[in-house]
Amino acid sequence: MNLQPLDLPVYTDFCIGKFEQAGKHLNSDVVASLYQRFDAVTSYMHRILNVLYARTGEGEICMLPMVDEAIDFILRMSSDTYESLYYQMPQKQRMLFLAIAKEGKAVEVTGGKFIHKHRLNSASSVSSALKGLLEKDFVTMDKNAYSVYDQFFSLWLAFKGLI
Question: Using 50, 70 and 90 to split pLDDT, how confident is the model at 6?
Fold first, then answer.
């Protein structure tokens, strides 16, 4: 059984309340932006909000432009880990991983259109690479679409100019 995400107003009130307890202020558009950008996945939002909380001084207001700075900070702190994971992948898995990351939500990854678009090898090669990526939890499947499991990993790929 999966827990459903909190409704945006509930989440917003909670976050603003935590900032206010420390004499800090949080614009509601920050929470709304994170909620939308990360599909209401609490773990991603929480990690970014922790950085924002630490970077907002008492009496200061956390505003929307600070979000990208916080994400950049997280990506820089995690860069060595993501780089190591990325370069440990076999070449065929790495190529498929990049293709899935580019798509965001990739469907029919063994189909000719997807393979040709991303310059991948054969359907059997993609199928084999996909099996390895799924086993290692680098990608996940939901409603017949594949996506990068760790959204920060996907952001890191973009940050490094790989997608």
Answer: confident
Instruction: Give 33-85 pLDDT, tens digit per residue.
Output: 999 999 999 999 999 999 999 999 999 999 999 999 999 999 999 999 999 99
Nearest to 8 by CA among 42, 37, 41, 31: 31
Taking the CA atoms of the chain, what radius of gyration do you get in angstroms? 18
The Cα-based distances of 163 to 50, 99, 152 in angstroms read 27, 8, 13
Q: How many CA atoms lie within 13 A of 26 on its CB side?
A: 27
Task: Give dist(CA 152, CA 43) in Å, integer.
Answer: 11
pLDDT digits (tens, 9 = 90+) for 57-70: 999 999 999 999 99
Q: Do β-strands 25-26 and 61-62 pair in parallel, antiparallel, or remain unpaired?
A: parallel
Domains of the chain: 8-76 (1.10.8), 89-159 (1.10.10.10)
